[in-house]
Amino acid sequence: MTQITSTVDFDQDGKQVGWLRVPHSVTRSAYGVLPIPVAVLRNGDGAKLMLSAGNHGDEYEGQVVLTRLIQQLEASDIRGTLIILPALNLPAVLAATRVSPLDTGNLNRVFPGDPNGGPTWKIADYIEHTLMPKVDVVADFHGGGASLDYRPHASTHYSPDASDEHKKKSLEIVTKLGVPHVMVFERRNKTEGFPDAAIRQGVISIGGEYGGTGSVFRPGVQLVQTAVERLLAVLGIKGELPANLPEPQLLHIPVPKSHVYAPEPGVFEPATELGDAVREGDLCGHVLFPENPTREPVPVTFSTYGDVVCKRHPGRVEAGDCVAHLAAPWPQGG
Ligand SMILES: [Zn+2]
Description:
Elements: E1 5-6, E2 14-23, E3 33-43, E4 48-53, H1 61-72, E5 80-85, H2 90-95, H3 119-131, E6 137-141, E7 148-150, E8 153-158, H4 164-174, E9 181-186, H5 194-200, E10 204-209, H6 218-234, E11 249-252, E12 259-261, E13 266-270, E14 277-278, E15 283-288, E16 298-301, E17 306-312, E18 316-317, E19 322-329
Helix pairs in contact: 1-6
């Protein structure tokens, strides 16, 4: 049983903005709680959607859009139910870090969580077992965080074993969000992510990466804003979809060969820009050694083809840091 309590009533009509209280009793605050902000807007029957950001604390485009949405939207504007969480892993959001400073938990890697675990595990358990069963669709907005930069994309995750109807609905929704690139993830043998929790709960899972570098990427904010508006429209919660929407490009990420890693410590000088199309064997960049300047740079190459959709942001690398990853057309050969 969860130890998290809520100050909002998820079954009540109207607009409520309150807190999920995660028990966190420490020396400076016996009986203390971590107050995770939550808004619930409900207006009768209709689709039920949960919007979240701040799963990783250093990814901001979703945090900006959802914070504004809570201020702007009234229950009378919508039909159905909207749950909005702009700062999902609150300790990470406040620390501007990917993982929680309290328990080093990476919220997107600890599902299904643990009601008796550290704060991050408690939050994951509550999301999967209390919040997800209340909705039909979840949309969790990400970016590259401090260490990565992304060409923005929307995404959907589903199990290869999902019904044709579930797959069709997932693709129908994600291709109408106004994001020119869409990543399709068929998740098998994965358990730990937010999308895996959604898959277990039978909920349609929408996501995406909308920027990175630990900054607020303005075009990414605009894309999240559009994606949220379209999501509300396509689910019949608010507004109408524009006519004649362009078809986005569908992509996937063939893991692990799409990812390129630094072979040793140094300064990584990239040889590509986001959006470049590359082939197997093409140069991704060089590791240079300013601390030992006569040493030859080490070339790093791509081991498959695709578009460069993600690049490392800081110049200094350790061995094993991801310096880039690719995405290829989906379905394969498409
Ligand atoms: Zn993220």
